[in-house]
From TrEMBL:
Catalytic activity: N(6)-(dimethylallyl)adenosine 5'-phosphate + H2O = N(6)-dimethylallyladenine + D-ribose 5-phosphate; 9-ribosyl-trans-zeatin 5'-phosphate + H2O = trans-zeatin + D-ribose 5-phosphate
Pfam families (UniProt xref): Lysine_decarbox
Protein name: Cytokinin riboside 5'-monophosphate phosphoribohydrolase
Gene Ontology biological-process entries: cytokinin biosynthetic process
Family affiliation: Belongs to the LOG family.
Compositionally skewed regions (Polar residues) per UniProt: 1-15
GO molecular function list: cytokinin riboside 5'-monophosphate phosphoribohydrolase activity
Length: 281
């Protein structure tokens, strides 16, 4: 069984675990049975001990202004919560500090393994890894797992930045460097800070949230030299038509804003766009 501990410690071994086809085949055959455990930082909490609420849900919870006791308690809790948020930033910065060139890949956690979208994710992860880019994902299943899986068969790092959710989402077994975050905004900072580009595979609300946040950062020039690539023309066509027909025609965005992203069909095209925009290449 390939546990997270064995994955995390791989970089410390003297032998590259991906040196042979036999080892690669063994990777494909190893399945982590994490159904009864949840990764939380250095700990694992069994399913019956997990809390139904998440940390950031408690942070955002509304308090009745008529209840003076709860308001006082909230003020005290929030003051101490700032230190927890700070510590999460510090832990993320420390863990990611030696990541050089990397690309963040987004996509649905609900895509099953035996689908064209999953295969596309594996091919993308491998193409990025072969090009020398570390692959950063949300660390979960579906397309995220696929991209990590592809990267795991290269010499580049496969990184997963997981998030605490009301339902279980374990780090997938293809992650070399994994972290678990309590707060979405801390995790999103890591996605952007340590990546040279974003690639979006087919996905749902989470993928769209990350896509439009990235577009806003580039549009407002909070980040520069940051290609955003949408992989899969058929999947993204309807959204692009809506942006053109509604947002552009309504004067809510400019024509130049539609040039902030690229739409391609193959991992090779995506890698070429990213490589051309990487200043060290």
């Amino acid at each position: 069984m390939r546990t997270l501990a064995s994955v995390t410690c791989m970089s410390a071994t003297s032998e590259n675990p991906r040196d042979s086809d036999a080892v690669s085949q063994r990777y494909d055959e190893e399945i982590v049975d994490d159904a009864a455990a949840c990764y939380v930082g250095p700990m694992r909490i069994r399913r019956d001990l997990q809390q139904p609420e998440t940390t950031d849900r408690r942070l955002l919870q509304w308090v009745d202004p008529r209840d003076q006791t709860l308001r006082a308690e909230r003020t005290m809790r929030d003051s101490w919560r700032v230190l927890r948020i700070q510590s999460e930033f510090v832990a993320g910065f420390d863990a990611m500090n030696d990541v050089a060139e990397a690309v963040t890949v987004f996509g649905s956690a609900r895509i099953p393994e035996d689908t064209p979208e999953y295969d596309l994710g594996v091919r993308l992860g491998k193409a990025l890894g072969d090009a020398g880019y570390a692959v950063i994902t949300g660390g979960g299943p579906g397309v995220m797992e696929a991209a990590n899986r592809g990267a795991a068969h290269t010499d580049s790092r496969s990184i997963g930045l997981n998030i605490e959710l009301p339902f279980e989402q374990h780090l997938n077994p293809w992650v070399d460097l994994g972290m678990n975050f309590r707060y979405f905004f801390v995790r999103k900072t890591m996605f952007v800070k340590y990546a040279q580009a974003f690639v979006c595979l087919p996905g749902g609300f989470g993928t769209l949230d990350e896509l439009f946040e990235a577009l806003t950062l580039v549009q407002t020039k909070k980040v520069v030299r940051f290609p955003i690539v949408l992989l899969g023309r058929t999947h993204w066509a309807g959204l692009i038509d809506w942006m053109r027909d509604r947002l552009l025609e309504g004067g809510m965005i400019s024509a130049d804003d539609l040039d902030l992203f690229h739409v391609v069909d193959t991992p090779e095209e995506a890698v070429q766009i990213i490589t051309d925009a990487t200043p060290t290449r």
